[in-house]
Amino acid sequence: MKNIKTVTGTTEQEIWPVIEADLADDDVLNYEVLINQSGRQVILTIDIDPGGGFEGGYEITELKAPVGIAHDFRFGVHDVDFIDEIGKFFGMEDVKTGYDDLDGHVIIKASDETLVRRVFEDAEVRAVFASLDDFDMGIHNRQLEGTDTELPTLELSINYGIIDPETLRKIYRAFDEVLHVIMSL
Question: What is the domain partition of the chain in residue ranges?
Answer without folding.
Answer: 5-183
